[in-house]
Amino acid sequence: MSRPSSSLRLAFGALVPSLLCACIIVTNDDIPPEEDTTDTNPTNPTNPTTGLPSDTTSTPTTDSATGLDDTGTTGDDTGETTGGLPGECTENLLLDPGFEAGTPSTVWNEDSTLFGTPICDASCTEETGAVPYAGSWWVWLGGVTDQVEVGSVSQRVTIEPEMAYLGFWLWIRSSAGTGDDVFTVTVDGETVFMVVDTDMAEYDEYTHVTVDITPYADGGDHEIAFIGDLAGSGLTSFFLDETSLVSCVESSGSSGSDSGSGTSTGAEGSSTGGGSSSGSGSSSG
């Protein structure tokens, strides 16, 4: 699979005011806007078990199952976390969460109107700076002009009670500036997170997002999908990498609501750009 020439693909759109959308997000302040293509290992690497970011303010030992540091929490003085989840959590329930098995995938359902699959490595482009968050592979949704493109990756997974959190790294690499190009995350077809291309200022580098999907933590099988719907009215690229899904149960002496302030059950909210995003909002998602 290959994308069109770089002149058509990766000219940055003008930054426009972001729409208030998506849920509360948790971010890594230290990830630069463009990773060195000769070294795709980030300076603040994702926990390989959970897909959650490591602590950005110190270097404590991180629990491999929960992403919590050895103090039990991570974060800043806003009350939002950069990796901590409430209670005792499973390991990552998603298979091949960083897409490192490449394509065709044996665990992800992959689809793309124009390319057959949105799962990419260096062969997709010669554009400097168009890179995964970690490893060699990532999901590239969009990346063409004047053509409608719908791409997606999805996976069915059993989500055990009581709580569940979905995480991923998202970068809006380029924007048509129209608001017509949409990135959504769905569970069983229901939107739990959404941004549009005009939110580029909020996601102008790889930004970590955590979504509270506890309503789906019922012991049943659920389909998790990441979808890019591009209207063809300009150049937009959504980059996705290092996904995670964990089920958690409240541990003795802890409160899910107290320690989970960095997550939300919503598909709407607000964020701030520059690689440090925060928001508040809720919905039935």
Give a verbal description of the structure.
Strands 1, 3, 4, 6, 9 and 11 form a 6-stranded antiparallel β-sheet that branches. The chain has helices at 6-9, 256-259, and strands at 88-89, 109-112, 119-120, 138-142, 149-158, 163-174, 182-187, 190-196, 207-212, 221-230, 237-249. It is built from 2 helices and 11 strands; from the N terminus they run H-E-E-E-E-E-E-E-E-E-E-E-H. It has one domain (11-33, 49-56, 74-259): Galactose-binding domain-like (Jelly Rolls, Sandwich), CATH 2.60.120. It is globular, with a radius of gyration of 17 Å.
Structure at a glance:
The chain has 285 residues and is mainly beta. It has a single domain, classed as Jelly Rolls (Sandwich), CATH 2.60.120.260.
Taken in chain order, the helices and strands follow as HEEEEEEEEEEEH
Cα radius of gyration in angstroms: 17 Å
Total helical segments: 2
Number of strands: 11
Query: Which homologous superfamily in CATH is the superfamily?
Result: Galactose-binding domain-like
- So, CATH architecture? Sandwich
Oligomer: single chain
Low-confidence stretches: 5-83, 254-266, 268-285
CATH level 1 class label: Mainly Beta
Strand content: 25-35%
What is the global morphology? globular
Percent helix range: under 10%
CATH topology: Jelly Rolls
Alpha-beta classification? mainly beta
- What is the terminal-to-terminal distance? 34 Å
Largest sheet, strands/sense/barrel: 6 strands, antiparallel
Average pLDDT figure? 72
- Integer count of domains: 1
Which helices and strands occur, and which strands form pairs?
Layout: H1 6-9, E1 88-89, E2 109-112, E3 119-120, E4 138-142, E5 149-158, E6 163-174, E7 182-187, E8 190-196, E9 207-212, E10 221-230, E11 237-249, H2 256-259
Antiparallel strand pairs: 1-11, 2-5, 3-4, 4-11, 5-10, 6-9, 6-11, 7-8, 7-10
